[in-house]
């Protein structure tokens, strides 16, 4: 897996596996998936990543800190 982020365009691309892309399908206004000829997901492109992804990552990190504090208590 490989993750690329373009901060100027605010686009996050997650390559799940190598391979030729047969088709790109839109899942949402800002989310597309690339699929190969077998219908497997090859990659995911997310526009406006700061809006869609960063808040979720921050929630995840906060939850992790809460769990760690609970375990250490």
List keywords for this structure.
73 residues; alpha+beta; 5-stranded antiparallel beta sheet; 2 helices
Description:
With 73 residues, the chain is an alpha+beta fold. It has one domain (2-72). Helices cover 32% and strands 38% of the residues. A hairpin with a 5-residue loop joins strand 4 and strand 5 (41-47). InterPro entries: DUF2283 (IPR019270). Pfam families: DUF2283.
**Ends distance:** 35 Å
Shape: elongated
The helicity comes to 25-40%
Radius of gyration: 16 Å
Low-pLDDT parts are none
Largest sheet: 5 strands, antiparallel
H/I helix tally:
2
Quickly count the domains: 1
Overall SS class: alpha+beta
Order of helices and strands: EEEEEHH
- Measured by DSSP, the beta-strand proportion falls in 35-45%
How would you sum up this structure in a few lines?
This protein has 73 residues and is an alpha+beta fold.
